[in-house]
C-alpha cells in the first residue's frame, strides 16, 4: 500500500474529513481492520489565511513546498492538499517536491465527465470562485464550462 502524504491544517476540520474518508474507503475496499498508510503535515491555518488574504501566493507555495518536502522525507509516495483553495499553488508544489499530487480539481473534473456533464456550477471560497486556477483547469484540461455566482451573489 502506498503512503499518502496529507498537507492539512487548512482548516483542521477539512483535514479530519480527508483522513476519515480515505480510511473509510480503504476499509470498504480491503475489509477487516485495514486502514490507510498516511503521514499528515498539519499547517497553522492562521498563517495560511493571512498569506491568502494578502495575495502572497509565492509565500503560500513556499509553505506548502516545505510541508511536501517533509512528507517526502518521511516516506510519502504522493501528496494530497486537503483544501481546494491551496490548489492555486499545486503546480509549484509538484515541481519543487518531486512527488505526484492527487489533484482535487482533476478528480472533480473526472467525476463530472463520468456523469456526462459539460457545464457545471461552482460554489466555493472567494479564492476558488474568483481565481482562474480552478475554473481554468477544468475548462482547459477537460473542456468543462464552469459557471460561478456573480460577485453580488457571493457571500
From TrEMBL:
UniProt-listed InterPro entries: Asp/Glu/hydantoin_racemase (IPR015942), Asp/Glu_race (IPR001920), Asp_race (IPR004380)
Entries under Pfam families matching the protein: Asp_Glu_race (PF01177)
Gene3D superfamilies documented for this protein: 3.40.50.1860
Molecular function GO terms recorded: amino-acid racemase activity
Family: Belongs to the aspartate/glutamate racemases family.
Species name: marine sediment metagenome
Keyword Isomerase on entry: yes
Endpoints of the signal sequence: none
Keywords: Isomerase
Name of protein: Aspartate racemase
